Amino acid sequence: MVASRETQAFRRDASTQGKLLEPKEREQLLKPYLPTPINSSSPLKHPKKRSLRAFLKTQVHFLIFTIISTVFSLYVRVRKAYHAIFNKVLAVLYYHHRTPELIRKDVRGLSRLPEHLSVILELKAEERGEAGLEALLDEVAEISAWCACVGIPMLSIYEKTGILKGYIPTTHRTISSKMHAYFGRRRPSLQIRAPHMPSFLNGDVSEFPSSNNSDHLSILLLSFEDGRSTLVDLTKTLAEMSQHDKIHPDDISVDLVDAEISESVMGEPNLLITFGPNVQLQGYPPWQLRLTEIYHVKDNAGVEYQVFLRALHNFAKAQLRFGR
Predict the structure, then answer these.
(1) How many CB atoms lie within 10 A of CB 193?
(2) Could you write out the DSSP letters of every residue in 41-90?
């Protein structure tokens, strides 16, 4: 009954917007329903214990994290130092002196060489402009000369931005000059081409690729647009042809897609070399990598002859298993 009277009194006071009861009377009505106030003069002991335990736990976690970070940092530094020293020693021991005979001697004992070699190069962000282009052209020329010395007839060069496609004549002149430094006057013939563009053969534009021989090097320039976008365009084309009854859906097969991509872009390379510290394909055409051997050297930065040589040795020892 008391609770009922208090409730009715509070509601009447609320309906009159607080005119019936004084503030103290309202406090007396609400006091039984409020929690007991905490006495600030007598603090609790349990929160202190809990805060101390949490502090010690945080410090232990921080100590473990510091130890793991220090050990991992030391491991990375030691690994990088070891690889840097090892790569420098190999670079000194196997320096080619721009002599084709020395390069052929380095690969003479290999059981096989790739018929189609592909490399991934990168236009340095800190060297944009003419300086970056000249550095990229020099790397292309060096790799081309090494392939010509070894006897690899096909070289495809992937550079994500596709800047080399706009400088095919300049690329040809740079590679020819590098070939002259290696071979003298008896340098091999050179052909440079890009997908959907006419080939550039020995300084002349040629619509048709020349026949392969032991003294000929064919170079293919690739970019990001030759990767997934080409596969998407081919899929759209086949879908439209199927909708217009120009091709039966049952005729669309893996062999057909492979033949179309090989004709429009390129076939599958035997070996792909990345000269960076990690395997980063950067949008490389995915269809052509089904059976490709990929090689890279940890903590390496830059195009080095010893990386090229180690890739060839690794390829010669690799076991290619195609399955059933």
Answers:
(1) 19
(2) TS--SHHHHHHHHHHHHHHHHHHHHHHHHHHHHHHHHHHHHHHHHHHHHH
* 3-class secondary structure, 200: strand
* Closest alpha carbon to 266 in 238, 286, 236: 286
Amino acid identity for residue 236 in this structure: K
202: left (phi over 0), alpha (psi -120 to 50) or beta: left
Of 197, 185, 200, the residue nearest 225 (C-alpha)? 197
CA 195 to CA 165: how far, in whole Å? 9
Rounded distance between C-alpha atoms, residue 114 and residue 147, angstroms:
10
Candidates 120, 145, 123, 148; CA nearest to 134 is 123
pTM, two decimal places:
0.73
CB neighbours of residue 13 within 10 Å: 17
Whether 143 has a pLDDT exceeding 60, the answer reads: yes
Measured between alpha carbons, how far is 121 from 136 in angstroms, rounded to an integer?
A: 8
> How far, in whole angstroms, is CA 43 from its chain's centroid?
59
Token pair 């232990």 is found at 60
CA distance 212 to 222: 20
Least confident of 6-10, 191-195, 208-212: 208-212
